[in-house]
Design a protein that fits this description.
Blueprint (H helix, E strand, L loop, with lengths): L1 E2 L12 E6 L5 H10 L3 E6 L12 E6 L25 E4 L1 H9 L3 E17 L16 E13 L4 E7 L4 E6 L4 E4 L11 H12 L8 H16 L3 E5 L4 H14 L3 E7 L7 H8 L5 E5 L1 H8 L5 H20 L5 E5 L4 H5 L27 E3 L7 H11 L3 H4 L19 H20 L8 E15 L2 E14 L7 E2 L4 H14 L3 E6 L13
Parallel strand pairs: 1-15, 2-3, 2-4, 4-5, 5-10, 11-12, 11-14, 12-13, 14-15, 17-19
Antiparallel strand pairs: 6-7, 6-8, 8-9, 9-10, 16-17, 17-18
Length: about 525
């Protein structure tokens, strides 16, 4: 399998900030905060060798957090020449400890660790990173560390300490090198965005010359040049990600694009009809492969196995359809950065959470070159790109739906009968959310069918049927999520309708877990 171009290759004219990924699940959130300032950034593996010369458009370097210890044998390999770059450096958590150790400070294993919300107190002279921040008021921040800096390195000053006296921030006295023990990128850190902005805009001097609209304009031109007369098929699911890719390719190569929508039998009500109506001008092929997918999933209950089966079957369907087209060299997908970071360590050593069907489930013997124009974007950036391309508001603001479809919302074995129950229950949830005017406000709202049977009573008769769970969350990018406190009358109405209208379900629960520690999807 040959990977397509990296989107960053066409961004050399933009100011860029590099983030070295030491494995933190928050690394992508740093990138989000930088992008929100209109500054392009790239996440690179911390194990990359430092370049012999740093590019002129590089304005700053961030060292991310990570699960390893700078004191342990499992610390990732790191080329210390990175620290010789002539741009401001910010170390976050592990990154700060690495800076401290490298410059001669003392890092120790803490007897007591700090996880979650913590209080930070600024020193009388907290330095330029905290300029205009009042020193007489504590800050609430998000901590996540075991080791800590016991003694700042020579030539560094302590800028802030936690309530337990641990060094929470430091800076070099004669160079723009800064360290934060806490995570300013997460929403829990009060004024965290302001700290990121202070570093990126004020200290690095970034002017903010990158937007999703610019991304679209530049990448359509890049696609046109790279693909030439090659024929491309695009796996179009109807979600915003693949729809944006299809629209970009349609503008770039026109008739040389064929979009393939695979009806895998795992879709929501009305999904296929809506896609057919909206994308009929995109050389759209609708392939009904529902029997192929559902037969292959019979008896399969393990989530990762489901994803890999579905990922491979998608490719086989694309290959089958491609045989009826002019020579096809490329397969385009709407993979986003969160898909990558949760699936495989493509950009760094971040821990794998689950395989995404676009990323972790592709067969090694795939016959196409893979092109993923949105691979470096977050969901909100993809939506902005969709608006710039003129996609319908309904398409741009469609709630995320997993590539494996109901296979990962039908826990346990996926059967045709169980899918009928889940599809009906899910339609009720989506209808009630829409009627309540909450559709745009909520990131995702859906139903999960559980492989659990419970006793119930209906019409004075005993029932023994399955249970389902309703899930509704707020999120900005899918990397973290908070539970939506749905109004009680709405929950009652959804529960009543599901139990009365869906034969096979007699109990409804509401999922109140956040991400982390849970995930948005159950599988």
């Amino acid at each position: 399998m040959v990977m397509g171009w990296a989107s960053s290759e066409w961004l050399v004219q933009h100011q860029t900030l590099w983030i070295l990924d030491f494995g933190s699940q928050y690394t992508q959130l740093i990138a989000r905060r930088v992008r929100e300032l209109g500054v392009y950034c790239e996440i690179r593996p911390c194990t990359d060798a430092a370049p012999d010369s740093f590019p002129e458009n590089l304005v700053g370097l961030v060292l991310s957090g990570g699960p390893a210890s700078v004191l342990g044998d499992d610390a990732p390999d790191f080329d210390m020449r990175w620290l010789d770059c002539d741009v401001p450096i910010l170390g976050v958590c592990y990154g700060m400890q690495l800076l401290a150790k490298h410059h001669g400070g003392e890092v120790v294993r803490g007897v007591s660790r700090e996880y979650g919300l913590a209080h930070v107190f600024l020193e009388p002279d907290p330095g330029p990173l905290f300029q205009d921040f009042t020193t007489d008021d504590h800050r609430i921040v998000w901590m996540s560390h075991g080791d800590h800096v016991e003694q700042a390195p020579p030539g560094f000053q302590v800028c802030a300490r936690s309530a337990s006296g641990i060094v929470a921030a430091m800076q070099a006295k004669d160079a723009p090198v800064y360290g934060l023990q806490f995570h300013p990128e997460v929403t829990h850190s009060r004024h965290g965005k302001a700290l990121v902005a202070r570093f990126v805009v004020d200290i690095c001097g970034a002017r903010g010359d990158w937007t999703p609209g610019v991304f679209v304009e530049e990448h359509i031109a890049q696609l046109r040049e790279q693909l030439g007369d090659d024929h491309v098929i695009c796996g179009l699911s109807g979600g915003v990600d693949s729809s944006v890719v299809a629209a970009m390719l349609h503008q770039a190569i026109g008739e040389n694009l064929t979009c393939i929508f695979v009806d895998n039998g795992l879709l929501r009500e009305g999904e296929a009809e809506q896609v057919r109506a909206e994308f009929q001008d995109f050389n759209l092929i609708v392939s009904d492969a529902s029997d192929l997918f559902l037969d292959a999933l019979l008896g399969v209950t393990e989530p990762e196995k489901k994803r890999k089966i579905i990922g491979e079957l998608f490719i086989r369907v694309f290959e089958q359809e491609a045989r009826n087209l002019p020579a096809v060299k490329w397969l385009a997908q709407g993979t986003l950065y969160p898909d990558v970071i949760e699936s495989v360590s493509v950009r760094g050593p971040s821990a794998t959470i689950k395989s995404h069907h676009n990323v972790g489930g592709l067969p090694d013997d795939m016959q196409f070159k893979l092109i993923e124009p949105l691979r470096e974007l977050f969901k909100d950036e993809a939506r902005a790109a969709g608006e710039a391309l003129g996609l319908s508001a309904q398409r741009v603001w469609r709630q995320p739906f997993p590539g494996p479809g109901f296979a990962v919302r039908c826990l346990g074995e996926v059967t045709r009968e169980r899918l009928v129950h889940l599809r009906k229950a899910d339609a009720i949830v989506r209808e009630e959310i829409k009627n309540a005017g909450l559709e745009r406000e909520i990131w995702q709202s859906f139903c999960v069918l559980l492989p659990v049977r419970s006793v119930g009573v209906m019409g004075d008769e005993r029932t023994y049927e399955e249970a389902c769970a309703i899930r509704a969350v707020y999120s900005h990018d899918g990397m973290t999520a908070d539970v939506v406190p749905l109004p009680w009358p709405l929950l009652q109405r959804m529960s009543s309708r599901i139990i009365n209208e869906v034969r096979g379900i007699n109990r409804v629960a509401y999922d109140i877990s956040s991400k982390p520690p849970g995930t948005i999807e159950w599988e």
